[in-house]
Write a structure and sequence with these properties.
Elements lengths: L2 H15 L6 H17 L4 H17 L8 H16 L14 E7 L5 H15 L4 E6 L4 H14 L2 E3 L7 H14 L4 E6 L7 H14 L3 E7 L4 H14 L3 E5 L8 H10 L3 E5 L7 E3 L2 H8 L5 H11 L2 H12 L5 H13 L3 H6 L4 H4 L11 H8 L3 H5 L6 H11 L3 H21 L2 H12 L5
Parallel strand pairs: 1-4, 1-5, 2-3, 2-4, 5-6, 6-7
Antiparallel strand pairs: 7-8
Helix pairs in contact: 1-2, 1-4, 2-3, 3-4, 4-11, 5-6, 7-8, 9-10, 17-19, 19-20
């Protein structure tokens, strides 16, 4: 996400990070490079120019030339301006109304149906809601089937009516069904087209008027860049939607849509899609995204994701096992499962300050743990509980059973031993204080 933009912005700010003489010419050159980086990221020219003009004005107004650390102050100014450009503050979703009605809009292929499922899953697991998905795409039978598959996957009911070809009537039926069955959120998935057309706009406008949703969300594929922004404007002129959802942000290295869409439609980005899994949905935080664009990582989001998967009972059991030197490979396996549930591995690594640059160009497979799991599964239950029993002949058998080399089995055992020692050290005073601090961060959400 934003790899190329991050790299170019870092180069642009490099001059001011040095210890040489800082002049108005340096600042002008830097802002020119920043503008070029934004244009390469497919940010609208007018927005990029206005952005750099504000940065330059603030930089000269805050005496960047005379400060002891001009580079740091310049980075802060760019970060603050980026945050404002992307919306300034985090916008929540409106869940008033009983049921709360959410209308999904967007072009075909934007990821609207998949994201409807992700949103339903998010509201069910994070907001303890009982959502209902309503299939109003009457033109593509596959769209109705897809929504049913998604609903089954996340354990959320889907309302559809294949006998009816009127999406307005289906939407109303769905809301009535929700009321009758105690569902407190209705997510209406509408038809998309390959391009903005009058018939499509009239249809979505009619649905909007008929159901009067609390939230109208526009779903846009961020990989379409500046086209995404233009489409958003066309939809907003008709629907006056409440917020934007950016999908496929994990696959986009330009990010122009994320940066400029707020300026064009003056509507907040509310959520982003960060992968294919149903859990791959994040609330959009402009300040955290600005940090990531500038290569500063996003530790807060990383901790939040970890806490979402953190099982306190499981952690207490493991803590007792570590204290008694009984931490085994089954426990190690459960830790791996928790990490995997946090999301895409490369995305997680990118949240660590400085790691994004180090990972550039590296292909980190989501199956990075596959060979470790294969090795562990090739052990007997006794071996998993007592790793010290693993002699040469057992290692050879495990390597053969997992399709790996003995060297890899030895490497895993060495890493496991080092991790066990580190976890044992974490049981001491400093470790406990650190764990308490992590626990305390839950209240800071």
């Amino acid at each position: 996400m934003f790899d190329n933009l991050s790299e170019k912005l870092e180069k642009a700010l490099h001059v001011l990070k040095g210890h040489g003489q800082i002049t108005e010419i340096n600042v002008a050159e830097t802002t020119k490079e920043v503008r070029r980086a934004l244009l390469d990221a497919d940010v609208n020219f007018k927005i990029a120019k206005e952005f750099t003009n504000r940065v330059k004005e603030k930089a000269l107004g805050q005496n960047v030339l005379t400060t002891l650390q001009p580079g740091q102050l310049m980075v802060k100014i760019v970060k603050d301006e980026l945050t404002q450009l992307m919306g300034g503050s985090t916008e929540g979703i409106n869940l008033s109304g009983n049921p709360s009605i959410i209308l999904m809009s967007g072009l075909q292929g934007s990821g609207k149906t998949t994201f409807s499922g992700k949103l339903a899953n998010y509201l069910k697991t994070k907001k303890t809601k009982k959502p209902l998905l309503v299939a109003c795409d009457v033109y593509r039978p596959a769209a109705i089937d897809q929504l049913h598959v998604v609903g089954e996957q996340i354990g959320v009911e889907v309302y559809s009516n294949r006998e009816n070809s009127d999406p307005v009537a289906i939407a109303k039926e769905g809301i009535a069904h929700a009321k009758a069955n105690g569902c407190n959120v209705v997510i209406v998935d509408t038809a998309g087209r390959l391009a903005v057309d009058e018939a499509m706009m009239n249809e979505i406008s009619n649905i909007h008027k008929a159901i009067e949703p609390q939230e109208t969300l526009f779903v846009v594929d961020s990989m379409t860049g500046q086209d995404a922004v233009n489409t958003a404007k066309a939809f907003n002129d008709i629907l006056n939607f409440d917020g934007v959802i950016l999908t496929k942000l994990d696959g986009d290295t330009r990010g122009g849509a994320a940066i400029s869409i707020k300026s064009v439609v003056d509507k907040p980005i509310k959520f982003i899609g960060t992968g294919e899994k149903m859990e791959a949905i994040d609330v959009f935080h402009p300040d955290r995204m600005a940090d990531r664009i500038l290569g500063m990582g996003d530790v807060i989001s990383l901790v939040e994701r970890a806490q979402d998967q953190f099982d306190e009972d499981e952690a207490r059991k493991i803590q007792k096992k570590i204290a008694k030197n009984k931490f085994g490979f089954d426990d190690f396996l459960s830790q791996i499962q928790q990490i995997k549930r946090m999301g895409n591995i490369k995305d997680l690594m990118g949240m660590i300050p400085g790691a994004g640059k180090a990972l550039k160009g590296m292909d980190i497979d989501d199956d990075a743990f596959k060979h470790i799991e294969a090795i562990i599964h090739s052990m007997t239950p006794d071996e998993r509980s007592n790793p010290s029993k693993l002699n040469a002949s057992r290692k050879k058998r495990i390597a053969k059973g997992s399709g790996r080399e003995v060297q890899e089995v030895n490497q895993l055992l060495k890493q496991f031993d080092q991790m066990s020692k580190m976890m044992k050290m974490m049981q001491g005073g400093k470790g406990k204080k650190m764990m308490q601090m992590m626990g305390g961060m839950k209240g800071m959400r």
